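Recap quiz, item 2
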Amino acid sequence: MSSDINKSVTMEPPLIEGNPTFESVTQDVSKIVERKPPKAWYPAFAVSATAALTGFILVGYLIWEGTGIWGLNNPVGWGWAIVNFVFWVGIGHAGTLISAILFLLRQRWRTSINRFAEAMTIFAVICALMFPSIHVGRIWVIHWTLPIPNQMAVWPNFRSPLLWDTFAVGTYFLCSFLFWYVGLIPDLATLRERATSKIKKLFYGIFSLGWRGGNRQWRHYEVAYLVLAGISTPLVLSVHSIVSTDFATSVLPGWHTTIFPPYFVAGAIFSGFAMVMTLSVIARKLYHLEHIITMKHLERMNIIMLLTGSMVGYAYSTEFFIAWYSGNEYETFAFINRAFGPYAWAYWIMISCNVITPQLFWFRKLRTNIPVMFVASILINIGMWFERFVIVMTLHRDFLPSSWDYYSPTIFDIGIFVGSFGLFFTLFLLFLRYLPMVAMSEVKGVLPQAAVHHDSSHAPSPGGSQ
Amino acid sequence: MSDEAKLKQQEYWRSLEARAADGKVIDPVPDSAGFGHDGDNSWSRRNFLTLMGASLAMAGLASCRRPKERIVPYVQAPEEIVPGNPRQYATAMPLGNHSYGVLVTSHEGRPTKIEGNPLHPTSLGAANVYMQASILDLYDPDRSDSVMQGSNKKSWADFVTFWKTLEADYVANKGEGLAILAEPFAAPTLYWLKQDFLKRFPNATWVTWEPAGDENAVAGMKIAYGKPLRPVYHFDNAGVVLSLDSDFLMSEPDNITSAQGFAKWRRLATESDEMNRLYAVESAHTVTGSMADHRLRIKPSEVGPLAMALAVELKKQGLELKGIDAAPGDQKYAKWIGAVARDLMANRGRCIIVAGQHQAPEVHALVASLNHALGAYLKTFSLRTLENTTLSDSGSLAKLTEKMKAGDVDTLVMLGGNPVFTSPDDLGFAAALKKVNNRIHLSLHRDETSRQCDWHVPMAHFLEAWSDAQAGESQYSVIQPLIEPLHGGKSAVELLNLLASGEEKSGYELVRETWRKLIPNGFDKRWRKTLHDGIYNLNKGFSGTAAVRRDVWDNIKKQELFRRSSDDLELVFTPSHSVYDGRYANNGWLQELPDPVTKLTWDNAALISPATAKEYSLTNGDIVELKLNGRGLEIPVWIVPGQADRTVVLPFGYGRTHAGRVGDEVGINTYVLRTTDAMWFATGLQMARTGRRRDDMANTQDHSSMEGRPIVREATLEEYRKHPEFAKEMVEHPPLVALWDDHDYSKGYQWGMAIDLNACTGCNACVVACQSENNIPVVGREQVHKGREMHWLRIDRYFNGKPEEAGMVYQPVACQHCENAPCEQVCPVAATVHDKEGLNTMVYNRCIGTRYCANNCPYKVRRFNFFNFTRDLPETVRMAQNPDVTVRSRGVMEKCTFCLQRINRTRRDAKLAGREIRDGEVITACQQTCPTRAIVFGNVNDPNSEVSKIKKRNRNYDLLAELNVKPRTSFMAKIRNPNPELEES
């Protein structure tokens, strides 16, 4: 009965299916952490950890031997490292978008996936931060990019977008991490209460910061969460805008364009949602969370992907139009070269994956079909990686044809990229194993039971109630 | 300061000699110093290559190796040796029977750089790639360091003892069975020692041979004049030049002076200046062809007929040519020949025809007689005698080999050279050598020949030993050593003296003995002046008018080579632009120097035209099998637009097996196709695809089209006269506004550079100068293939026109020192910043290696140290480094500094003297060595400086000016001067 009332109040179908109770939500989420993981977890972890470890060894060799082990050359000073950096930062966008912007917009359906997405964000940003650090020639003096007072009295160059990057990505990581952690506190307390071993109790006890679920604590919590959401929201837009200035402030044809900031942000959200989709489709299946992460969630994410994917496609065409309309022969060439030059294959992979694939989601049947969306999300991730590849490879042909060259990755480029996936999934699997992957407290908040309406006077206008 | 006054200052050298007498300072470097012993293979080639660039560590050790004889420093000598103050000494580099006057910079007794000697007529201050790179040969860690008998180390004394055992017999039989195989030379001391030797052993055989000599030119003069002479061309007087397969701007012996003379006509100050016109007929595409106003690409067999057709045409047009039939020649190029002939006729007395040194003697004779008829003689063309000169002679080498095969040679002494590797394949020299009992080889390396000899004597490098050189009858140079022999080598002079006299004498004594005869009066003073100046000029130029023999036409006409051959595939041999005849194979700078036409490094290839490639369905890197008269080889092809069709050009000198860690197994040995009857050209070549290919060919420029961009701006003289501002007008852009206030560049020195593309021939001299001056590492084929060459200065080569008839243009590009530098803005740690004199400086210590600056450089001139290219440099190679330039380590960016170290040295000197830096006082390394003076550097803030004046010329333009980067280097547009008659409608 109450659920019917709730249904009528919100004028939308329930966000969580199967009519769970508070208790069953706690049970469903906590048991994942408390019991042994599903069998598939172990091989997945072994593979991921091996890849991560291999990646670390390769990074060690890179630092020992020099960036020459990569495929970089004279015109192409940035290769996969920067492609991967932008790729991972982009992936890292969905989390904050879901947690902060959707939170502020009162998009309550976010609650089932936000924890998940935020964790993904943090791990993606960790992977992202690795790349600009290891891609420099002399990593042992990389702290010179930070404005640390020093005996040389030399400051970093504040005109350089790379410096802005340092700040932007650093800030983003910090805020996302805090946001995620603050959101975790009530759930960690739940796990602490349910802990069966001393170690678990100690671990969850320390990290739940003495949460007891009191009214005042909830009030502080809600405000803190709101403030962090407010801080994070501009970051969602700023991080990738600033990452895009790495390219946009240069003088190079194909890089020097004002469209980059919005286009990068759209692309980042696009890729971020694709990655959330990939992961949530697997996780909800493996952990039997179909009733919490429902088809509605998935469908909405698909709609966002359709939107951002179309924005990205629009940006691609605008770039071309402006390149032609500018009358600048270098700019025009850069784009013709993208589509028909030596890297045309990459360009067309990008177009097919990023522009054509999301158009499937115009059809309800397709956007509610799990295999379709799973494959599409992977294609989109591939496409978005290639987008960054296409952008970075613009370097290979700039003003003077004499310096044109072709870049091919080496085994080390590939190995470290695979290693970053290893690191990402290792962290993610550890997260699944030891932390609640769904924000229990928030999901409870959107359960019908949470909207306590004892009095039918709150009922909407006649006709809507029954 | 007069020369005498300079000399007076230099008495201090005596005290140095006295210092040497205490015995301590001249000890040879002990073995433990690791000077690349034969058995010491601890440096892998990759280590060496990746690290061949720089270091200071050996400075101290090197300083104890001053030669003990008295040598006289060149100009601006400090009172005593001041550490850190380099000095320059004049000497000369012999190459075949030519020599080039050089100045060698020496840091505390350690020679580090070779430049041209401004007082020496062969270089006039400029230097070509071989001259400059030979400094690295001196420090080659693979040089032989010991006398060897078979594979046993012996001493020089052992060798002397051995010779003594032979000597008595030979003295008795007057040298029967004794033979000497020497490289050609033009050197009084060697020549007189040769005479002594032949006097002592009259029955001995003396053979002179080198693989890439100019014996054809001399033989041609012999046909024309009845005596061996050398043609000398004076391009500075020639308004019209016709080159018949002559690469006089790069490959011919007088390339430096030719380029200097030629460029005088090309550095146009205004549109009303007169410009010369060059017609080039050639098979290969050469830098000379790139400078041509009209280029005709024909097969090598067509050059002779074309020359004859030209003679006929000239006669038809009224030139007095006795003995020639006025029958019409071949009509294939009639229009071209007619126009050229008319141009030559209109410019009688101020035109020349130049024949390439590889053309047959008869072509040279024909050309000489045409030059005479055209009134060129003593105006644009003269002759030089061959005093004290030995000439390469393939015929006598063949005879010697026959004798060796017959067992008639008991002892063969080879003074330098590498005949086992370089001799014509049909002679079977290596097999013949086995029949000689005593095989003695004097050589820098234990090379292919040394390994087949029972005695190997390490040779002293020309910077280590006394010798002399001569050009014609008037120009003498003393070759003075800069350093004690690093490996105890002996010079050809010293070895020959031992053979000729049975006594040991130092090279110093021998050369002085010769020169006492050359300078009968006032020897001491003149000797010292010669050492100081690097040249002893008697000013007795060839004055007697040489007359062409009457029967020259009869001799020429009979020759078969003036008849057109079939449509066979033809072959052209050419010495490599990098390793020459193979002698520089172990020189990393030269191996990595891009070929001026193909831009290939670390390899040779069979060069073919696009049409030939199409005919055989070949692309770059496809391996073909070439067959010629039963000999064959497999080699990858490389397509050269503008080359003659159905012609294969094969550079030789590659594919060495015992060159050293750098040069072994690099490229393909093409000598295996070379035979005595086809030394330069051959017909009847067969080419077949093998289906295999090489994908690791390392070229430094992948893309050869300018894509219609205004990069090298070019116009014909006519267009230039109509639109003098065409270069600037080629790019239209909106007003350039900076986002922030520009720096104030109106005060003090503001350095800038201007490069005249109309004078630049693309000869690469500046690239090597920069490499030597700035300790630029050699990175090896693999790294070049990846696009990581480190040259701060590159020469861009673009083809223009249709692929078949393509022309070539060159553009040297180094850091443009933009006032509004895009690289500076993006560096997160401010490692690249502007100084107040407008230099874009690179602070290596601050660089963290993000490579963002390189990405954002529109000219792509920044170079990144992807690996530590200098860490494991052999110690000897470290000695070649310039101590004034920082050695860069791994992970930092580097680029052209406008030779900041030279600016600062000059600034310091000017400050000490209490004056401003004068115009022309700071000379960058590239500018210094440029034979055509295409590069000018100076203070652009001084309106009277040369660079300011040049930048005001209407041909001046800034590359990519529309980006508002405000480059400090500007270019002068290229102008061509085509014959209106030949211009396509």
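The first strand of chain B starts at residue 87 and ends at 95.
The radius of gyration of chain B is 28 Å.
End of item.
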